[in-house]
């Protein structure tokens, strides 16, 4: 082997890929030529020189990724990091303003988990690892499980941990309100059954303009997965799995824009029960989950990605 062969030998690097044509190393950026990775995550790339690279395969996380990079420690709430530098705020809008999205969060982390994230070359935070607790997390977890209003009686609670408690308490409050609203809505629907049956013929004529949607709803009676797969395909999403939850709704996992998502849908209508992403109007506190169906949810996700406000509650 001569010196020319050595210069031409390709180099392989494991890097995080968040979508698009660019990947980043420490202080460098490459453009991915050819086939893109199948979904967001850690991937091996081949560098042959210059600013172009080629995707090779899915890989494991680079254990040295944090070296030479800015790191942030704090508490994870979903895919948002509450940094240790955060200040206690009672206004949820001020809490959200102090958080930052973390990409590629390890699934299955418990509430009030501490984590370390490192800054990627494009400025995004990449999950590196779970950190050891600082001492009060278990007591704060018990306070949250007991539905306490505050953690003022627990010694050693840091501002970041208190913010995580307040945010999770707020999320649960919204969930409880949604459950109560669903109960009231069920009662209202029961009262309207007779009137709806009388209007069925007219509704059937109106649905003629959206015949495919009607066929998907009819298919629900025989094969939920087939109907869900067809509904997601409207927006270019791919069904991965579905299962029943404890409320007889369906938990649907799907892939969209090379990322995995999870939502809860009504098994008879495909209407969204829980979107798995934040659809709360932070001014009014009103959730918008049930305004969408399995057909329209991916478009909402695409808009959230485009505007940089995507906040995932449920991790697939």
> How would you classify the helix and strand content by structural class?
alpha+beta
Strand order of the largest sheet: 1-4-5-3-2
For the report, how would you describe the main beta sheet?
A: 5 strands, mixed
* Overall pLDDT: 85
Shape: flat
Helix content: 25-40%
Question: Which stretches are low in confidence, meaning pLDDT under 50 for 5 or more residues running?
Answer: 201-211
Number of domains: 3
Q: Count the DSSP helices.
A: 8
Sketch the topology as an H/E string, one letter per element.
Answer: HEEEEEEEHEEEHHHHHEEEEH
Rg from Cα: 23 Å
Residue fraction in strands:
25-35%
Number of β-strand runs: 14
Gap between N and C termini: 48 Å
Kindly list the characteristics that best describe this protein.
flat; 31% helix; five-stranded mixed barrel
What do you see in this structure?
With 316 residues, the protein is an alpha+beta fold. It folds into 3 domains: 3-58; 71-164, no CATH class; 211-307. It is 31% helix and 26% strand. It is built from 8 helices and 14 strands. The strands form 3 sheets. It has a 5-stranded mixed beta sheet with strand order 1-4-5-3-2, with no helix packed on it. Strands 6-7-8-10-9 form a 5-stranded mixed beta barrel. Strands 11-12-13-14 form a 4-stranded antiparallel beta sheet, with helices on one face. The protein is flat and about 75 Å long.
């Amino acid at each position: 082997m001569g010196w020319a062969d050595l210069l031409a030998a390709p180099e392989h690097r494991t890097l995080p890929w968040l979508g698009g044509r660019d990947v980043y190393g420490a202080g460098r950026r490459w453009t991915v030529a050819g086939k893109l990775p199948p979904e967001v995550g850690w991937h091996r790339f081949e560098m042959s020189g210059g600013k172009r690279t080629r995707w090779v395969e899915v890989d494991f996380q680079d254990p040295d990724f944090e070296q030479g990079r800015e790191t942030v420690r704090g508490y994870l709430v979903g895919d948002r990091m509450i940094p240790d530098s955060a200040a206690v705020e009672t206004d949820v809008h001020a809490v959200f303003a102090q958080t930052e999205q973390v990409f590629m969060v390890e699934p299955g982390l418990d509430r009030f988990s501490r984590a370390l994230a490192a800054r990627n070359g494009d400025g995004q935070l990449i999950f590196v690892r779970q950190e050891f607790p600082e001492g009060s997390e278990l007591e704060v977890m018990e306070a949250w499980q007991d539905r306490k209003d505050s953690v003022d009686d627990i010694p050693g609670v840091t501002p970041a941990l208190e913010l995580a408690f307040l945010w999770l308490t707020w999320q649960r409050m919204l969930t409880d309100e949604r459950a109560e609203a669903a109960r009231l809505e069920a009662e209202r629907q029961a009262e309207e059954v007779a009137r709806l049956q009388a209007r069925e013929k007219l509704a059937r004529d109106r649905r003629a303009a959206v015949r495919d949607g009607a066929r998907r709803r009819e298919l629900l009676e025989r094969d939920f997965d087939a109907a869900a797969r067809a509904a997601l395909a409207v927006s270019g999403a791919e069904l991965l799995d579905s299962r029943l939850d404890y409320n007889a709704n369906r938990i649907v996992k799907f892939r969209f824009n090379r990322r995995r998502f999870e939502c809860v849908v009504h098994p008879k209508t495909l209407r969204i029960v829980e979107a798995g992403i934040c659809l709360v109007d932070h001014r009014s506190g009103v959730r918008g989950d049930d305004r969408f169906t399995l057909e329209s949810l991916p478009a909402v996700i695409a808009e959230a990605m485009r505007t940089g406000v995507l906040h995932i509650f449920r991790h697939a």
